[in-house]
Each structure stands twice: as structure tokens, then as C-alpha cells.
Amino acid sequence: MSAADPTCRYAEFHARSLADPAAFWAEQADLIDWERPFDQVVDTTHPPFARWFVGGRTNLCHNAVDRHAATHPDRRALIWVSTEVDQRREWTFAALQREVEATAAILRRHGVGPGDRVLIYCPMVPEAVFAMLACARIGAIHSVVFGGFASHSLAGRIEDCTPKLVVSCDAGSRGGKVQGYQPLLEEALRLSAHKVDRVLWIDRGLVPIERQPGRDLDYAAEREAVAQERVPCEWLESNEVSYTLYTSGTTGKPKGVQRDVGGYAVALAASIRHIFDGRPGETFFSTSDIGWVVGHSYIVYGPLIAGMATLMVEGLPIRPDPGIWWRLVQEYQVTVMFSAPTAVRVLRKADPAYLSQSDLSSLRSLFLAGEPLDEPTARWIRDALGKPVVDNYWQTETGWPILTLARGVAPMNERLGSPGVPMYGYNAVLVDPETGATLEGPNQKGVLALDYPLPPGCLQTVWRDDARYVKTYWSSIPGRQLYSTFDVATRDSEGYTFILGRSDDVINVAGHRLGTREIEECIAGLASVAEVAVVGVADELKGQVAVAFVVPKQADLSEDELARQVGQQVNEQLGAVARPARVHAVAALPKTRSGKLLRRAMQALCEGRELGDLSTLEDATTLQALAQKLRPV
Ligand code: ATP
Ligand code: MG
């Protein structure tokens, strides 16, 4: 390998970040503005806690908005497109600053100050972004709750974060169906033991809002009243809390991830440069939702901090037709795009001609994250786009990618099926979960763990629950001070990591440990299969057996024939031990609202156990259909 070799160049960059984290991150810290310089890069006196850029004072909103408004006021900052209500709007950095200051003035006027919580329960409307940035501006802590969650989930989050004020909206729209927010919010407020003082309503005129005097505020009227008010940024010590956000709840009760200010700003600025290769003045398009971590980091803060415009879309990838995203890429000259495998699978069902109708020459790469990107899906979208498709693996907890290809450092080659290599700052190791030993050799299966300290941008703790933070994340690997991702992986001889599934999802068939993902990937390779989920189910004889739920491409394929094909494929590729004991043909799979398979619910169903927390389930009928199917006749 020569120094010109991109793999080598990246390896050197990564090695430097681990050999001298203080020097490495001090350099990255120059990517943002500091009102007061930090005294210490990282404080590691209280492991497993870490404090980054101690003593430094900065502000997320200043870095995302004001500093660009000062130098490039007329540059595009926020582009909002709703294919649901057929509207488009744009703000330059100067205009965005005005809106954010106005929202900040409204919040302040109603008693919201530094450290107070503001819960944002909104569809994909620009005012929700103003509210997030306004909180950051005045040092209030936002907690965005995905607009698709119903009362029960919302109530739990209200109780946990105890907001002074809630920002909500009359309605969202999905697939042309208007969904009112007030009934859900009112029910959640009724269920919750915590009482909120104020609700700030964004009224889009989609459904009537019943206002409660003394509690409810109208955004437009308030906006009028504060039109001229200026609200300066509150300078915050780097380790103050910027926001809390709940994990997706795929494996159980969601955890309230707490994030800092300075570390997060630096981590995002660095990631846009080194990983996403986004440049000031360009446009970043993330198809996620502001209710998820990808929305926080790569719709709102990341692109704006980097001086990029961010394109925010309310709408589905297939409406008005499956060409919509690619037309937007052309129209707004998007250079970096970020989406999820689940969306690509939806598009894959449509005519590929939709992709070739738009001029995609501006686009540099498409990043995908959130769940395993199987090879056939990756190959399809890569070939259809003719652009690099970069899988990236991370968690709500980390705030930015753990594994991927740092396209900005060096254009490393992709390896389909692998999200790539550990990013700078992350010392990612594979460990044996029983002994805690690090697995050095290639192709060994272990839990993916991260060494202390976690790099900037990662969670500080679990909101108001340091003990849970330590116990959940730092205490599961025997004898080691390591953060567990609870994902199982292997690494090939060149260091590319492959995620095999959640550690709970590794099944043990007659002593063989199998990742459910390996089996799924193998089954997904069948031409007759649209989607598949594999779970381990307790079995008297073998300990556990694999059970597959398969969505066939053609509904008329018989279950017997499907089972035969699946059995044969797994036999040939993985061996008989991995062959599912049962194959169920189903119309749809139960998923979380963020598009992840709810394997634990499927497993519980198969084992006749309680289904547990289902608050993040997208569509309850999928699970009911499965239950129907499994009922003994
Ligand atoms: P909870 O922690 O509440 O159970 P969750 O883990 O689904 O929910 P997120 O933080 O949204 O919540 O998701 C992170 C997880 O998603 C990862 O730990 C991993 O299991 C999965 N994941 C994310 N990206 C990828 C990827 N590129 N490849 C494989 N798995 C991924
Ligand atoms: Mg998780």
C-alpha cells in the first residue's frame, strides 16, 4: 500500500485520531466558532463519562445560522417542500436567523429560559426547525417527538422530559391523509402526570384547533407580536445539555439520549467534511424526519453548521410518483443525499425509469443508514444511480456514524453488505460477550463495542439517569470498560465490518451461533422474496430454531413452494443448521415507525409470550395478521 492509496490514507487518519485524541479533536474544533476557547479538550476523570471541550463556550444556533448569516446572508439555508399540501418555501441564512430569533422571542416571552425543556411534537414543517434552533439559541433543551407517535408514547416522553412548553401543529399529512395532532396531544397531556404550562400551536389551516385560554398560543399571532425583537445567542459551556431524544425502541423501552453542545457541534462539522464530503453553499438532502436522530444531525444541525442548504421534505417517496426525490435532487442541485434502506426497498418496487428521468449529475453520493443494507438492495440502487452508495452504521446514542466510508478523507472502495470501517475517534472492537476478550482475527463473530472515551457528539448520559447509562451501556462486557452497541458483527481481513444483527437476535441452534441477519440476507437473495425477517424461537430439542417470515413478491406463490425455495437457498449457502424450521408467508412485516423490523415482537409471538412495549410499532395490523397466522388450528 502506498500513501496515495485511499485506504491507507484513511487508516492513517483514523490511527492519528486514536493515538492523540486531544490533538486530533482540538484541530476539528476549529471548524466551529467559540465565544470562549476551551481549557481542556477532554476530561476523562469520571469514566465512563467524558466531557469534551471543557470550559469552552459556544452555541449551536450561532454555528448553524448566525455565523453564515453574517458572511453569506443571501445563501440558501432551508428549503422546505411539501408534496402533501403542495407548497414550497425557502429561507436564506439571513431569513432563517430572523425566523429563529422570532421563535426564540416567543419562547422567552412565555417563560422559557436556559435549561428549560421544550417538547416539539410536529410534522415536517419548517416552524419545527425554527423551534429547535430557537431552543438552541436560548439554551433551552429540546425534545423532539416523532409526529407519528400516538398518545401513549408521547405521554411517556412528556413525563420523562417534563417540558415547560410544547410546540405542536394542527395537522400533518401522509399519503394525502390529513392527521390531526390535537386529539393525540390532548390525550397525552391527560395521561401524563406532568403538567405543561403552554402549548404553542402552528396552525396550517388543515384542521380546526380548539384553544384552551391561558394555555394555548397561536404561532402566527405571537410571531406578529415579536416581529422586531432581537434575541442574542446564549453562550453555553460546551457540556451544557442541548437536547434529549429517545431511541427507536426496537429492543424495548426507549432510552432518553442526552447530548451536549460543543462536542456535538464539532462532531457534526467534522462529519460533514470528512465523511459526507459536503461543502458550504451546496445542498444536503436527508429524507429522514426531524423526530429521529438522522433528522437532528443531518436535516437540521449538520448541514447548517457546515454552511450548506438543507432540503426538508414532507411527503412520501412515491407521491405524486416514485420520481419525486430525483426531481428534487435535480432541481436543488443536491450534492449529498441521505436516506434509509427501507425507502430504497419501496422505490425498488417501482419502475427504474423514474430514476433515469432526472439529471443526477450534481449528486456525489447517497448515504443509507438505520438498518442493515442487504446486498441486492445496495446493488440495485447503486446501479440505478450510477453513484457511490454508502452504508453507514450508527445509533441514536452516537449522533453520527460509527462505521462507514469517510468519503471526504479518501474515496475508499465500498464493499457491498458492509457499512465499512470504524470512523475516526471511534476505537471499535469486537469482543466475546461471554469472556470479554477482544477478537483480533478476521471473520470472528463478536459484539461491537467502543472504547472509552466515546468521541465528541455521542450521548453524555441517559437523561436524568446516570445509573441507567452506566448499567445499560458500560456494564455488559465482563471485565472491560467498553460501551456495548448491542450489535453483533464480524470483520474481514481488510477491516471491513459486517453487522449480523442485534446481540439479542443471535440464535443458538444446537450450539451454533447464527446471526438472524445472515439468514435474512441469504433468503433476501431469492428472486421470489420481497422482504424477510428471521427470529430465533425456543425449541426443546435444539435450544433455538430459526423461523422466517417472508413477504413474497407475488402474492399467488404458495407457502409450500416459498418454504421449499427458502430451505434450499439456506441449505446451499449457509448449511442445514441455519435452515428455518418454519417459513410463514405474510403480507407485511411489523416495523417500528422508523422502519426497523420488530423482531422481538415476532419472537414473543412465536413463543407465546407477552409482546412487551409496542408503542413504536408502525402498523398494528401487521402484528395481528401474524398472530392470526400462528394461532393453532
Ligand atoms: P432501541 O435502542 O430503543 O432498541 P434502536 O436501536 O432501533 O432502538 P436507533 O438508535 O434508532 O434505535 O437504531 C440504532 C440501531 O439500528 C443500531 O444499533 C443497529 O442495530 C441498527 N442500524 C443502524 N444503522 C445500521 C446499518 N447501517 N446496518 C445495520 N444496522 C444498523
Ligand atoms: Mg439501540
Written account of the structure:
Keywords: ATP-binding, Ligase, Nucleotide-binding. Residues 66-449 form the AMP-dependent synthetase/ligase domain. This protein is an alpha/beta fold. It has a domain at 512-630: ANL, C-terminal domain (GMP Synthetase, Chain A, domain 3), CATH 3.30.300.30. The chain is 32% helix and 25% strand. The strands form nine sheets. An eight-stranded mixed sheet has the order 12-11-8-6-7-14-15-25, sandwiched between helices. Strands 5-4-17-16-18-19-20 form a seven-stranded mixed sheet, sandwiched between helices. The longest helix has 17 residues, at 93-109. The protein is globular. The chain starts with 5 loop residues before the first helix and ends with a helix. Magnesium ion binds at residues 247, 251, 395.
Please summarize what this structure is.
The protein is α/β, with parallel strands linked by helices and 633 residues long. Helix 3 crosses helix 4. The chain has a domain at 512-630: ANL, C-terminal domain (GMP Synthetase, Chain A, domain 3), CATH 3.30.300.
User: Helicity level, as a percent range?
Assistant: 25-40%
**Category by helix and strand content:** alpha/beta
CATH domain class name of the domain at 512-630: Alpha Beta
CATH topology of the domain at 512-630: GMP Synthetase, Chain A, domain 3
Q: In whole angstroms, how far apart are the ends?
A: 63 Å
User: What would the principal axes of the Cα set say about the shape?
Assistant: globular
Q: What proportion of the residues form beta strands (DSSP E)? A: 15-25%
Mean of pLDDT: 94
Helix count, DSSP H or I runs of 4 or more residues:
19
- The CATH architecture name of the domain at 512-630 reads 2-Layer Sandwich
* Poorly predicted residue ranges: none
Main sheet: strands, sense, barrel = 8 strands, mixed
What ligands does this structure carry?
adenosine-5'-triphosphate, magnesium ion
Q: Strands across the major sheet, in which order?
A: 12-11-8-6-7-14-15-25
- Rg over C-alpha atoms, rounded to the nearest angstrom: 24 Å
CATH superfamily name of the domain at 512-630? ANL, C-terminal domain
Quaternary status of these chains?
single chain
Strand segment count: 32
Family: Belongs to the ATP-dependent AMP-binding enzyme family.
Domain AMP-dependent synthetase/ligase: 66-449
Domain Acetyl-coenzyme A synthetase N-terminal: 10-64
InterPro entries: ACAS_N, AMP-bd_C, AMP-bd_C_sf, AMP-dep_synth/lig_dom, ANL_N_sf, Propion_PrpE
